[in-house]
UniProtKB/TrEMBL annotation:
PROSITE patterns attached to this UniProt entry: TATD_1
Chain sites annotated for binding a divalent metal cation 2: H103, H130
InterPro entries: DNase_TatD-rel_CS, Metal_Hydrolase, TatD-like
Protein name: TatD family hydrolase
Lineage, top ranks: Bacteria, Bacillati, Actinomycetota, Actinomycetes, Mycobacteriales
Species: Corynebacterium glucuronolyticum
Sequence positions that bind a divalent metal cation 1: E71, D178
Alphabetized UniProt keyword annotations: Hydrolase, Metal-binding
Single GO MF annotation: hydrolase activity, acting on ester bonds
Length: 223
């Protein structure tokens, strides 16, 4: 079973058909996370577009309730490194390990620098940069630090994205849709499954190997 590691369940007008789907349901704020209890693979988020320090107490209260953190990170258009630094601190200080889905738009080096500030405790976090758009040397640094990337169709539409998915070790690749793109957009489970299969088919073509079993093995190890 392939898992969509970055899916916006709360954007759907009716999320019911997806509540048992193989997804990690990202959220944009702790408030949004707390509003949807009892969702499998539910991620606690503080998206950089909405990263108010006022949300950090709620993040702190909820961080032990889930293995999954996301969507979090940095975006050059919204400079808020202190909020990200503090949520990383809260995450590595919690009572459990976490898988973190990271938004890093023209900010990969800053994200990695902040994670490095928490060595050796950063090993409490398995970092996945979703839809990686950074530079090649940043990707190398991220992978060497134990990181993963999650691949969506838009990444595979670019020459750089296609190069990156052949550059990294096969066991550092995961799949995602980053769908729906906006609140109110509709999607059926069959449409979603076809998109995931299309990603894996393209990865297999680019790498010259069957990526389904490889990705499923990686999922079992970290998710």
């Amino acid at each position: 079973m392939l898992i969509d590691t970055h899916f916006h369940l709360d954007f759907l007008p009716d999320p019911t058909p997806f509540k048992a789907a193989p997804i990690i349901a990202q959220t944009l704020t702790p408030t949004a996370y707390l509003a949807q209890p009892h969702i499998p693979r539910h991620a606690l988020g503080l998206h950089p577009w909405y990263a108010s320090l006022d949300e950090l107490p709620a993040f702190a209260d909820a961080v032990d309730s889930t293995k999954f953190i996301g969507e979090v990170g940095l975006d050059y258009r919204f400079p808020n490194q202190e909020a990200f630094r503090r949520l990383v601190d809260l995450t590595v200080s919690s009572s459990r390990t976490h898988v973190m889905s990271i938004h890093a738009v023209r900010s990969v080096t800053a994200v990695l620098d902040i994670l490095d500030e928490f060595d050796p405790r950063r090993t409490q976090i398995t970092p996945i940069i979703h839809w990686f758009t950074g530079m090649s040397d940043e990707l190398t640094r991220h992978i060497r630090a134990g990181g993963f990337i999650s691949v969506n169709p838009r990444m595979l539409e670019t020459k750089r994205g296609r190069a990156y998915v052949t550059q990294v070790p096969a066991d550092r690749l995961l799949v995602e849709t980053d769908l729906p793109r906006e609140a109110g957009e509709t999607l059926t489970p069959d449409e979603h499954a076809a998109i995931i299969q299309g990603i894996v088919d393209k990865l297999s073509e680019l790498r010259g190997e069957d990526m389904t079993a490889r990705i499923e093995e990686t999922q079992r190890e970290i998710l």
